[in-house]
Write a structure and sequence with these properties.
The complex is a heterodimer of chains A (601) and B (217). Chain A has 601 residues and is α/β, with parallel strands linked by helices. Helix content of chain A is 36%, strand content 18%. Chain A has 20 helices and 22 strands. Chain A has an 8-stranded mixed sheet, sandwiched between helices. Chain A has a 5-stranded mixed sheet with strand order 3-2-1-4-5, with helices on both faces. Chain A starts with a strand and ends with a strand. With 217 residues, chain B is mostly helical. Chain B is built from 6 helices and no strands. Classes of the chains: A alpha/beta (601), B mainly alpha (217). The interface between A and B is large, with 86 and 64 residues.
């Protein structure tokens, strides 16, 4: 039985294929459309997944969609009508967009695949998230917390889940916090207040929080009120979600926190090295960020405690966009009292497609029987040969028109020396302070680069990291980098009491680094002494594990600075051509695409 | 400016998409060069756009749809793509000209002039490649150009039709909003203050309903 899963119409649209309960492939639309967090119908992703898996559209048995558009429409109508008679303009535009587009998603699916409406199933949004997290974790039983901006009507859900003898997950809803009480939306509103892009730069809010003190936590607690039973409520008077050209905040918010930060105001904080003197106005914003982060963590800890109380289990799965908050996740892993805190590789809406597909697959008798990791994207093995580069005639491009569009260099050379030699050569280049584009096999699903679409740098080399930030990633210096290390070396860096926690495998959580190990990852440390590790088992990604070993053998450093292989404002690269474009346009020194090593000369 | 950034990004995407299927090395080189420059233009526009605003704006998204079917990979498909590219480049250059004349900011005018110049080069290069390809494959240039001029006309009419349709629908919805909005407002306020227990009950019903639909027949 083949199920096509689809998510779309909010952000991170995705498609996936599940065959007999086994995820075959999953891919976000942004990887093919070059539009970060693309929310459109994922037609390119569907076509790519089908082509990659060799599945014809007529072989699809069912299609699973990650939410119920009609129920969601009722919520959007209610939120627009609530402001009557001042929301006329927004009402017309929003309703038109939904009536002409999102309500007809079955028609879009039919056009893209030919699957008839009776085979298309709408799975409630949070149930999609919960199924994805529980299936990926492959636990016998767990509590599941889904926290995001909003699903159809709910913004936070608590489930208990267990696997039956037939392998089918039994997921039961225990709590549902209704819109407009939403942790995700409040966090995003603060993100907008701090001058960052909503649904994209919440990680900047989290990073900025470490530079501040939570002196406004009392004010934030007036907005998000903790209830005695572990749930929470939000005071909607602080927000105005009907505006689109400025932060969605009301006068009440501004009188509590002051004016919003303009994106022209420079934040001069830096994770490593010397920060320039900080403008007191910017310190104010860092303090606001620290305050919302503190209150978010308080509320989520209360929710986790409630989950433990209601379910009595010792495993917790997290899903929804808020589960991308790695500072919060790190604290939950260390302090929540759950023995096992699991965060799937793509807890946001991208994972919802796979959750919906697994839900439908299980209902029709084919549940997921094994957990799964992040390497479920497409690969392009054998698609790039050294001859292809010659055929692209890059020299000609460099010599003629495109000088402004590419970084200046003399030319390039490429070869296929075999993996052992590539690992050795890459290690040597890293030791010389070079930036390496590392492209291997199937791309990762979710927002983290985990050794298949990564940019790599020596994590001790300040100059190389600065070049990575300024010439490749255009990354603000207050945002820390992450690192990868092999499982065997985890105890060198971290003080985990019961072995390596599952929540540290895919860069989903931040943890304090032992003082004696900080020199190894000095450029991947946040100002609070934490790092966001990928602790890698060899069975999960053999080539990347071997590269890290080769690097350690050469340098004595057991970790690599690993950041996503993309340029600022673009999604992670998907194909070899995407990688070559980034290689030509930035200061990446060498690029490895599967078994081909390309160097600038 | 964000719209133009998206237009240029779409143009880069078109070239990268075609690059997957085209085998002729000279056309591949042209497409890669084109993609690099269009990405650069997209960034120039996006940077200029963000300079104009104090707050990050929502970036409009474009649904990607290939200009011309290039999947077959043969010379004729490549020729059609190049024809579409040349027509598109000329069209966007004309748009840029109009905006350049209308915009008072000299920096933005210079930006438009620079990009116009590049677009002119793209159109010329595409036409040169197209002419060569047509000659080598025995394809009628005139037929290709007419076909794409016709496509362009249809696209413009479709775009105009959609804008008119949106205006009419918005008007109708606004009328409905003011006629029935009062009742809707009352219902919406009731729904927005729903207790957690009520929400839980509704969500459970929703889940049961969804589950009942997913049953093997």
């Amino acid at each position: 039985m083949i199920v096509l899963g689809i998510s779309s119409d909010f952000h991170d649209s995705s498609a996936c294929l599940v065959k007999d309960g086994v995820p075959l492939v999953t891919a976000a639309e942004e990887r093919f459309s070059y539009q970060k967090h693309d929310s459109g119908f994922p037609e390119l992703a569907i076509k790519s997944c089908l082509r990659w898996a060799g599945v014809q559209p007529e072989e699809i048995d069912f299609v699973a969609y990650h939410e119920e558009p009609v129920v969601k429409f009722s919520r959007i109508m209610a939120s627009r009508l609530q402001g009557f008679p001042f929301t006329a303009r927004n009402f017309a535009r929003t309703v038109r967009e939904i009536v002409l587009g999102q309500l007809w998603v079955k028609l879009d699916i039919f056009r893209a695949t030919g699957v008839s409406a009776d085979k298309i199933h709408m799975v409630p949004h949070h149930l999609s998230h919960a199924t994805y997290a529980f299936s990926a974790a492959n636990l016998p039983r767990a509590a599941i917390l889904v926290i995001d901006a909003v699903g159809e009507w709910t913004s936070t859900s608590l489930f208990s889940a267990e696997r039956g003898d037939d392998g089918n997950p039994r997921i039961q809803l225990l709590d549902a916090v209704p819109y407009p009480h939403s942790l995700g939306m409040v966090y995003s509103a603060f993100t907008a207040f701090l001058g960052f892009r909503v649904n994209e730069s919440e990680n900047s809010t989290m990073a900025l929080a470490s530079f501040g003190t939570p002196r406004f936590a009392g004010e934030v607690r007036k907005i998000i009120r903790a209830e005695s039973d572990g749930l929470y409520s939000v005071d909607p008077d602080y927000f105005d979600f009907s505006v689109t050209d400025r932060p969605p905040l009301s006068r009440k918010f501004y009188s509590a926190f002051g004016p919003a930060r303009s994106n022209k105001d420079k934040l001069s904080f830096a994770c490593v090295g010397e920060s320039s003197p900080v403008d007191p106005r910017m310190q104010h914003y860092a303090d606001v960020a620290a305050s919302i982060q503190t209150v978010l963590e308080e509320i989520v800890f209360a929710l986790a405690a409630r989950a433990k109380r209601l379910t009595g289990v010792d495993s917790l799965c997290l899903a929804g966009g808020v589960a991308l908050n790695c500072s919060m996740n790190g604290r939950l892993i260390r302090e929540s009292g759950f023995k096992n805190v699991f965060i799937p590789p793509d807890p946001g809406d991208g994972g919802g497609a796979l959750g919906a597909a697994l839900y439908v697959s299980a209902k029709f008798g084919a549940p997921a029987r094994k957990g799964f990791g992040p390497y479920l994207g497409l690969d392009y093995s054998g698609r790039l040969q050294t001859g292809d580069l010659a055929r692209l005639e890059i020299h000609e491009i460099l010599q003629h028109r495109s000088k402004a569009a590419v970084k200046k260099f003399g030319g390039f050379k490429s070869e296929t020396p075999g993996f052992a030699a590539i690992a050795e050569r890459v290690s040597e280049k890293l030791a010389r302070g070079q930036v390496i584009g590392w492209f291997q096999g199937r791309f990762e699903n979710g927002p983290r680069a985990l050794g298949n679409r990564s940019l790599l740098v020596d994590p001790r080399n300040a100059e190389a990291t600065r070049r990575l930030s300024r010439q490749v990633k255009l990354r603000a210096p207050f945002r820390p980098y992450a690192c990868s290390l092999n499982e065997e070396k985890a105890s060198v860096f971290f003080d985990f009491k019961d072995g390596v926690p599952a929540g540290t495998r895919w860069m989903s959580s931040a943890h304090p680094v032992r003082p004696q190990a900080r020199e190894f990852v000095s450029e991947a440390l946040h100002v609070d002494g934490t790092t966001r590790p990928q602790i890698l088992a060899r069975a999960e990604n053999q080539k990347y594990h071997d590269l890290i070993s080769a690097w350690e053998a050469r340098s004595g450093c057991p970790a690599l600075l690993n950041t996503s292989f993309n340029e600022s404002g673009y999604p992670l690269v998907s194909s070899p051509v995407d990688a070559i474009l980034a290689f030509l346009r930035t200061d990446i020194d060498a690029l490895v695409v599967d078994d081909v090593l390309i160097e600038k000369v | 400016m964000y719209e133009f950034a998206q237009t240029e990004l779409d143009s880069a995407w078109q070239s990268v998409h075609a690059l997957q299927y085209v085998t002729d090395p000279r056309i591949r080189s042209l497409l890669l060069q084109h993609a690099l420059e269009e990405l650069h233009h997209s960034e120039l526009f996006a940077d200029a756009a963000s300079e104009q605003s104090d707050f990050p704006q929502a970036v409009p998204l474009t649904r990607r749809s290939p200009l011309s079917e290039v999947e077959s990979g043969d010379g004729s498909a490549a020729a059609k793509f190049l024809a579409a590219l040349a027509v598109g480049e000329n069209e966007i250059r004309n748009d840029f000209q109009v905006y350049r004349r209308a915009i008072p900011d000299p920096r933005i005018r210079r930006l438009f002039a620079q990009i116009e110049n590049d677009e002119e080069g793209h159109a010329e290069n595409s036409m040169a490649s197209l002419t060569r390809l047509a000659r080598e494959n025995g394809i009628s240039m005139r037929a290709i150009r007419w076909r794409h001029a016709w496509e362009l006309l249809k696209r413009r009419h479709k775009s105009l039709g959609m804008k008119m349709g949106a205006l009419i629908l918005d008007t109708a919805l606004t009328v409905l909003y003011f006629v029935f909005g009062g009742f809707g407002h009352w219902q919406a306020r009731r729904r927005m203050v729903m207790s957690y227990e009520q929400q839980l009950k509704i969500s459970r019903q929703q889940y049961e309903l969804a589950e009942s639909k997913v049953r093997p027949s």
